[in-house]
Write a structure and sequence with these properties.
With about 475 residues, the chain is of the alpha/beta class. The protein contains 20 helices and 13 strands. The protein has helices at about 5-15, 20-25, 45-55, 75-85, 90-105, 135-150, 175-185, 195-205, 210-220, 255-260, 265-270, 300-310, 320-340, 340-345, 350-360, 370-395, 400-415, 425-430, 430-435, 435-450, and strands at about 110-115, 125-130, 170, 190-195, 225-230, 240, 245-250, 275-280, 315-320, 365-370, 420, 455, 460.
């Protein structure tokens, strides 16, 4: 059992001794000795309940979270364990995702990955989870650790202004290009913690100010070691910003986000800049007994964060093994994927590089190993597969008319179900439920016309049912 697994289980048991079963889920105690994590034999009961829950809610059954994000190594694993202890609905995948983001926040002001033009570790994160999940608990670690650093003694030999470069935290996404640029003029490293981000994305599709803000964020994404041009203005003079570092950590629900995504956002490159985490589909057991003590980070974790921040300018380099892995994996997997799905997979390589750099840095190393990069690839590609499955099922980026999206969803359901009551169609397909009554009738007629189903009273009986997909 890894250090993270042990710590997570201890946190769960300390919070509520009745959570033995939940702790067992994290540590793998429910698995047989011959069933490794991620195998087909993983938690058979849990897997089936996830599938049932997904079906009841009318969504797809997504690929499992990558095993590597369940137990991050070294310092990021310690961060993940502490974040897990804050969560009312504890989730190792979501805690691991948050640990990546928090690590990037504290490292981005000074860390450079040695590449052609230099690559920062700033990133754009989007966490999708249901209402009531406790998303405020995954935003909290940024400010908790920042406050702890302010109260931490300055490390020996470090300049007195060692915290001056620490990114500033904003609590909403920028409302305009000019507003974003003005904030970056005051401090070039900024982290935006934005809840209900789907609402902002929707406005960015039709509101000129937010469209420009999104464009400016896109420019800043890759300018960590260059210059962000000043926006044109008639009455106000803006100055270019050198080495801007912008990190977004956004939260929303999957349903609302899918309603706002557009093909044009995908084609512009706005979406492939986001690392998207889709939370568990099944119910997570609520943990009782979380107290203020859970929010106090361990001293060793604060010391590690202080060590990262106090390094000053750090350059992370690949060793020979990591370089060889990159060249092989890019040629065989990621470069073809980038061209086949540029909307979501266009930046998987550089995002994996950033995570690999953090894995090494939080192990107090400045050389990225093949092991670091292999872990980063597994996590980034695993999250991509879940996101692609969710968005592909929904049809949000297809450019299809809403009736076409509903038809696609229902075809998939009739492959997996022998029959569906007509009155339940809006429950199994969110797209169908959002249509007008007239359009719903059009979709049903098309299903019958195509031979997807036949109507027997109030029951639609599938003609394309595949038992192996049930």
């Amino acid at each position: 059992m890894s250090r993270l697994d042990q710590q997570a289980a201890q946190d769960l048991r300390r919070a509520d001794p009745r959570d033995e079963a939940l702790a067992a889920e994290y540590t793998g105690e429910h698995r047989s000795e011959t069933s490794p994590p991620g195998s087909a034999a993983r938690a058979k009961a849990g897997a089936s309940s996830t599938k049932t829950t997904a079906s009841k809610h009318g969504g797809p059954v997504l690929p499992e979270h990558p095993d590597e994000i369940l137990g991050l190594p070294a310092g990021l694993g310690d961060l993940q364990a502490w974040i897990t202890g804050l969560m009312t609905y504890p989730s190792l995948p979501m805690a691991g995702f948050t640990a990546w983001a928090v690590g990037a926040h504290f490292a981005m002001a000074s860390v450079r990955i040695d590449s052609r033009r230099g690559l920062g570790v700033n990133e754009q994160f989007m966490a999708l989870a249901p209402t009531g999940y406790g998303k405020e608990e995954i935003r909290a670690p940024f400010e908790i650790l920042a406050r702890e650093l302010q109260e931490t003694a300055r490390p020996t030999g470090v300049p007195s202004a060692w915290l001056a470069a620490l990114p500033k935290i904003q609590h909403s996404a920028p409302a305009s290009q000019q507003g974003l640029h003005r904030i970056l003029e005051t401090h070039p490293a900024q982290t935006f913690l934005a809840d209900e981000f789907a609402e902002w994305l929707e406005h960015a599709s039709n509101d000129g100010h937010r469209q420009q803000a999104l464009g400016h964020i896109m420019q800043a994404y890759g300018r960590a070691f260059s210059t962000l041009s000043a926006p044109a203005a008639v009455t106000t003079e803006y100055k270019p910003v050198e080495n801007p570092r912008v990190l977004l950590f956004t939260t929303s629900t999957a349903e609302r986000t899918l309603e706002t995504l557009t093909a044009s956002q995908g084609d512009s490159g706005a979406l492939n800049r986001f690392v998207i985490m889709t939370g568990e589909q099944g119910m997570i057991r609520k943990r009782y007994g979380v107290t203020s003590a859970n929010f106090k980070p361990p001293a060793e974790l604060v010391e590690l964060i202080a060590w990262v921040v106090s390094r000053g300018d750090v350059t992370m380099r690949f060793d020979a093994g990591a370089q060889a892995l990159y060249e092989k994996h890019d040629a065989e997997v990621l470069d073809p994927l980038k061209f086949s799905d540029h909307r979501l997979a266009g930046r998987l390589n550089e995002q994996a590089f950033k995570l690999a750099a953090l894995l090494a840095l939080f192990d107090k190393r400045t050389v990225i190993s093949a092991g670091d990069l292999s872990t980063a690839y597994a996590i980034r590609e695993g999250l991509y597969r879940r996101t692609a499955s969710l968005i592909g099922y929904d049809g949000a980026l297809s450019g299809m008319h809403p009736t076409g999206r509903a038809l696609e969803q229902l075809r998939a359901h009739f492959q997996a179900k022998p029959s569906i009551y007509r009155s339940n169609l809006k429950k199994v397909s969110r797209r169908f439920g959002a249509l007008s009554v007239h359009d719903q009738e059009s979709v049903i007629r098309e299903l019958l016309k195509e031979g997807v189903a036949t109507l027997e009273g109030a029951l639609l009986v599938s003609c394309i049912y595949r038992e192996d997909e049930a």
